[in-house]
Every structure is written in structure tokens, then in C-alpha cells.
Amino acid sequence: xxxxxSRRAFSLMELxxxxxxxxxxxxxxxxxxxxxxxxAEKTDSLARLRTVGQAILLxxxxxxxxxxxxxxxGQVMLYDAAREGRIVxxxxxxxxxxxxxxxxxxxxxxxxxxxxxxxxxTMEDVRVYVMNSVIIQEGQTNxxxxxxxxxxxxxxxxxxxxxxxxxDERWMISETxxxxxxxxxxxxxxxxxPKPAHDGFRAVLNFDGSANLEQVTD
Length: 218
What we know:
Blueprint: H1 12-61, E1 74-75, E2 78-79, H2 87-90, H3 92-95, E3 104-105, H4 112-117, E4 129-131, E5 135-137, E6 140-142, E7 171-175, E8 201-206, E9 211-215
Antiparallel strand pairs: 1-4, 2-3, 4-7, 5-6, 7-8, 8-9
């Protein structure tokens, strides 16, 4: 008995079709992976801000409703026991930040999106957050977290005074980028990311302790 052992080879057209299908499947897989990664970073940013919000509310609850401060407008995540005006020092007890005599970077306070976009060698200088440091109420200028940039130093405000804020002023802390209205004119603007870390969205913490993603408009 004779068996026919010849095999039919793939034509060039069939091979191109197979490659095209594989390419589409890979692209779909990469797209889904990127979307999932982006959502994870957004969730991470919001979670970290909520932690800061809880720490601020706990602090206020133990200090006659007064906010921590005075604080600098742009916040780095470098703990330095000798430097005033930083969240990581003033709220260390409430954030579980270890006290050390030597300055160190508090990694757990830094959103993943910032770690991805900034080299570790310069992270100590990056202003990760910007405080809502100037609010106009009934024609008067108020500074919720006080001010270290004026003389005499302005102390922080009490939370009840901020109950009647207009909608656009209810934010307490925001992730930074160079297009943020409260960053544009700041001397430390270059030490912030060039654009929002979440593809047109910023993570924002409000005075009631809630956090949300705010869409950036041109």
C-alpha cells in the first residue's frame, strides 16, 4: 500500500492573513492591559488621597477642628524633622510615618503614577500635591492651611469656616502638574509633572474627606 505523504504548504496570502490576525489579537491584548494598568493607577491615587484626608480629619478632631499647618502650597514627600510646613511631618502620627532624625523619602505617600513618570533620583524634589492655599470668601482672602510665605506667619483655619465654600473651591489637595491653575505661577512649577498623570484627569481630595478624579479642561 502506498501512502501519499506530501503536505500542502501555506500560501503567502494565507500566511499574511494569519499574521494579521495574530497582530490584531496582540493589539487588543495590549490595549486591555494598558487600560487595566491606567485604572489601577487611578485607584491607587484616590486611595492615597483618602488616607491623607482621614489623617487631616483626625488631626482636626484632636485640635479643636483646626487644620494642620501652616503648610507650604507645594508638598514634597520628604520627611525632615527639622523642616516645617510639610504634610509628612505634621501628620506623621496620623499617617503612620516613622520619625527619623535623618531626612528620608516616604515612598508609601507617592502615587504609582508619579513613581512611573519620575526617576527615583529626583523624586525628593517633586511636588506631588498642591494645597488649596488661597480661597476668596465674601470678598475676603482666606488661607485654609495658613501660610509660611508671608510675615507674620498666617495660622491655618478651622474646618467649620469652610462649610459654605462654593463648588469650585471645595477641593483641599490635588495632584500636581504644570498646567494646574495653582501651579502655573509657582516657583517650583518645574518640579511637577508636565501634564496630568492620568490622561486628562487629576486625583483631588475635598474638605469633607472624599476623593475624586477631576477632568482637566483646557
